[in-house]
Amino acid sequence: MKYLIVGLGNIGAEYQHTRHNIGFDVADALARKHGVSFRSDRLADVAEIRWKGRVLVVIKPTTYMNLSGKAVKYWMDKEKIPVENVLVVLDELALPLEVLRLRPGGSDAGHNGLKSIQEAIATNQYPRLRFGIGNDYPKGRQVDYVLGKWNSREEPVVLQKTDKCVEIIESFATIGLERSMNNYNKLTFPL
Q1: Catalytic one among 17, 20, 34, 111?
Q2: Is 17 a catalytic residue?
């Protein structure tokens, strides 16, 4: 059984470890835990994890966030992975920093990466793991905030949540979305 794990983010040193790139950071943590590395391939950096009889194809699209759907569609087709076995990990401005939320589908909520994926695969019913980044920024400074680095107060929570994301991804691949949602419906981490 194959799964496609998609960490959303932007390529380039200026985006590394920013709030908007948390999907890449989670994908890196998953690969590190399983002792695999990413290789450059078509439309994405790719790592393959063999674990408990499953294959997890982990991608970090190199298309930039707004065109993430091209990479997702390509790797779904190439690896013959059904939409229910795709899990997208992304930053979520509408959730407080202390929250993680696993969902079976839903709207893009203005997230350009999700919008691109929805257009490319012609559905909004694909699992996603939303990593709350909060919205503590002055009016008109959303872009600076989203593309900004975590502050020292946020970093311990981000590390905890990243580890929990790896656990949720492993759960998704072994017991499925529905049971994982029961176990990890909405997690809150103290700040």
Answers
A1: 20
A2: no
